[in-house]
Amino acid sequence: MCVFRLLYKRQKYSKLKAKIGGGELELLVADSFVKKAIGLMYRKSLGENEGMLFKFGREGYYGIWMRNMLFSIDIIWIGESGRIVDIVESAEPCTRALGCEVYKPREKGKYIIEARKGFAKKAKIAIGDKVSLP
């Protein structure tokens, strides 16, 4: 069994709610190295208003890959100011062992939100919009 799958089953996540554009998300918080490495791997789906928040100590060009993902997502990078710095809509899962695309933002971010595919369009979010994180 893959080490990521074993680690996934042992993680406990805190949750928080965030307002983003015209929507609201209940987010699982990935605030440790292991939680960030696992991300949404192996989960079968996300609810319509669910997602994951990746928290980093400082701004950087943090990448997301879709290895071992089972569904498509929207990826939203947020800067230290709380403004959206980049968005990737409908990032597709990668089933290859090597060579999965790594999605990186155009500008540095401190947070990343992964949401269900279509959330960005439905919530009408755009680069520069403010995100309300507690």
Ordered list of secondary-structure elements with their pairings:
Layout: H1 3-10, E1 15-20, E2 23-30, H2 33-38, E3 50-60, E4 64-65, E5 73-78, E6 84-91, E7 102-103, E8 109-116, H3 119-122, E9 131-132
Parallel strand pairs: 2-3
Antiparallel strand pairs: 1-2, 1-9, 3-8, 4-7, 5-6, 5-8
Structure description:
The protein is mostly beta strands and 134 residues long. The protein has one domain: Jelly Rolls (Sandwich). Helices cover 13% and strands 40% of the residues. The strands form two sheets. The protein has a seven-stranded mixed β-sheet. The chain has a two-stranded antiparallel sheet with strand order 4-7. Strand 2, helix 2 and strand 3 form a beta-alpha-beta unit. The protein is globular. It starts with a helix and ends with a strand. The mean pLDDT is 90.
Radius of gyration: 14 Å
The tally of strands reads 9
What structural class do you assign from the helix and strand content? mainly beta
Largest sheet: 7 strands, mixed
Strand order of the largest sheet: 6-5-8-3-2-1-9
> Uncertain regions: pLDDT < 50 for 5+ in a row?
none
